[in-house]
Amino acid sequence: MASALSDCSSRATARLLPFQRSVQSRVSQFQRSVSIAWNPLGMNAIRSAASPHWSSSAVAPVAMTTETSAKVIDGKSVAKQIKDEIAGEILRMKDGTGIVPGLAVILVGSRKDSQTYVRNKKKACEAVGIKSYEANLPEDSTEEDVLKHIARFNDDPSVHGILVQLPLPRHMNEEKILNAVSIEKDVDGFHPLNIGRLAMQGRDPLFVPCTPKGCMELLHRYGVEIKGKRAVVIGRSNIVGMPAALLLQKANATISMVHSYTKNPEEITRQADIIISAAGVANLVRGSWIKPGAVVIDVGINPIDDAESPRGYRLVGDVCYEEVCTVASAITPVPGGVGPMTIAMLLSNTLSSAKRIHNFK
Amino acid sequence: MASALSDCSSRATARLLPFQRSVQSRVSQFQRSVSIAWNPLGMNAIRSAASPHWSSSAVAPVAMTTETSAKVIDGKSVAKQIKDEIAGEILRMKDGTGIVPGLAVILVGSRKDSQTYVRNKKKACEAVGIKSYEANLPEDSTEEDVLKHIARFNDDPSVHGILVQLPLPRHMNEEKILNAVSIEKDVDGFHPLNIGRLAMQGRDPLFVPCTPKGCMELLHRYGVEIKGKRAVVIGRSNIVGMPAALLLQKANATISMVHSYTKNPEEITRQADIIISAAGVANLVRGSWIKPGAVVIDVGINPIDDAESPRGYRLVGDVCYEEVCTVASAITPVPGGVGPMTIAMLLSNTLSSAKRIHNFK
């Protein structure tokens, strides 16, 4: 699928930064309400005005076949709404039972990105009233050290969810360590028993993996009908693509799974009413891959070089946003789409776990 | 999908009976070897001569667009070959360790069809050297009675596989009973932990469910390439359709799943290089559903009325054989296709289990 990358990456410098999205959202809302055809280059000009980092010279002209624009599926705002709902439920539970949900995170080593994720999870927990527990272990810990902490959290009645931050150091057996997490506290939903229940009709998993659950929640909250629709999932990882396909199938979509061995990903994807892309390849999904009116959920978070950015890189999705937003009826931006939903779903799973363990309805 | 039934059923009276298949096989072998176009009506005449039940008046003329014929995937003969291989392995194991694999079957009630299945399984075990164990419980047994027998077989070191014959009486909780079977002896492969491992990359189930495993074995033994091919699975039951899709996907096919909510099953199926149909609807899949050259595995075993048969009915597949065999490159007949493979795979799973438990390579 690498050949599909071509030059969308260069156009991707026009990608929206978070604070720009509200501008675009207002503009496109206006344009839909007055039924005026929308020129994306015009939109780029608006973006340019709003963004000190944006460089118009980096934007190649895009040949447009349609001049409509997709609705932006605003994950950030939906995630906020969900977190507010969770905070309310946690208060109600605390008032009713005196119990507060607890989430334990085990971090091994000192990878900067992992530390950032863990810090963000902790902050998100605090914001909704979930109590955080942490175990920080040095890089050279043994498997037994990690298993000991998992066992402690498994036994601790104030902990309702346990996360092992991945990746683990290379000398550890990830499968063995993840399997040690009690199935009742596996808020990541990665345990094969959960995945099996997700796949089976008439069975329900205790937890649905957070990112695909977030994708489904976005579809639901934006009123996207799933039953009877064609859905294509691009990528088949254990943590996103595969469970996303199982969820869509459970919701009675007709699913197809596209992956690196698929010979004609473009042709198959163009049949879909709903696309979830979790390939981890920047700008893989082009405008020509999309059936007009399809709904596009972009799970990819791919760093690409960007001399204009203070960090030297920026994050883009799997989907060539500029092209696809002229064909799709709705699309998630990156960042600000699926990303914020993942953490909201982790909080949601932790709350559900506490409710289930304490039989609180 | 019901509308697709139309009148193929009436033509299906030309379906092969087991003893006819050898005739057809020889004929089509001949026709392929001398590259003569094959007229299926001519074949029907040959069938007619070989079958006292066949009535030519029931066969409507079929409009043919191509006049080639699919290779018949002979499940009966492949199953025999596999059973011979298993018998050889069991002898080797017995010689090496003194241990013989054991399969326990639990039958509750006195359904005629279940009794027949259990008797056939027992006979198949005896034929390859697997020791059979049985528990026959009356219809009005309690769940606890059944669970007690499962526990006994779980603990019995001479039992390596446990089957609970389905359906269970209505007053029993099937999920609870199936979950009681030790995962190490779940030769049916229906435990959600097995299904989860089947779905996940980098994980392997202890046992693959017998019928989909049989489908894959047929594809392998007939040299059908799977990697990179489009595969469509029709039907999504926990015991066939869903695990078949997961197996095809693990073998790097690009899978789509068609089911009762699918709006255009014909259009999607026509894209497939490989089709596994497990819908349980007689003659659902017509010739027009098939891409020329596709390989078709028909899991359906559907009884339809047949005044000509001494039993008053006969068994047909999901696939309208007469139409599809003129379009596909290879096809399984019903009966004699997937059916015999299911029991061969059960024996194979029991042997694998005994080898694993006793660490015999």
TrEMBL record, chains A, B:
Membrane spanning stretches: none
Catalyzed chemical reaction(s): (6R)-5,10-methenyltetrahydrofolate + H2O = (6R)-10-formyltetrahydrofolate + H(+); (6R)-5,10-methylene-5,6,7,8-tetrahydrofolate + NADP(+) = (6R)-5,10-methenyltetrahydrofolate + NADPH
GO molecular function annotations of the record: methenyltetrahydrofolate cyclohydrolase activity; methylenetetrahydrofolate dehydrogenase (NADP+) activity
Domain Tetrahydrofolate dehydrogenase/cyclohydrolase catalytic: from-to ranges: 73-188
Keywords assigned: Hydrolase, Multifunctional enzyme, NADP, One-carbon metabolism, Oxidoreductase, Photorespiration
Entry-linked Gene3D superfamilies: Leucine Dehydrogenase, chain A, domain 1, NAD(P)-binding Rossmann-like Domain
Alphabetical list of PROSITE patterns matching this protein: THF_DHG_CYH_2
GO cellular component, one term: cytosol
Domain Tetrahydrofolate dehydrogenase/cyclohydrolase NAD(P)-binding: 209-356
Pfam (any one): THF_DHG_CYH_C
Pathways per UniProt: One-carbon metabolism; tetrahydrofolate interconversion
Any one GO biological process: tetrahydrofolate interconversion
Family: Belongs to the tetrahydrofolate dehydrogenase/cyclohydrolase family.
Function in brief: Catalyzes the oxidation of 5,10-methylenetetrahydrofolate to 5,10-methenyltetrahydrofolate and then the hydrolysis of 5,10-methenyltetrahydrofolate to 10-formyltetrahydrofolate.
Subunit structure: Homodimer.
Name of the protein described by the UniProt record: Bifunctional protein FolD 4, chloroplastic isoform X1
Top-level taxonomy: Eukaryota, Viridiplantae, Streptophyta, Embryophyta, Tracheophyta
Gene: LOC103720461
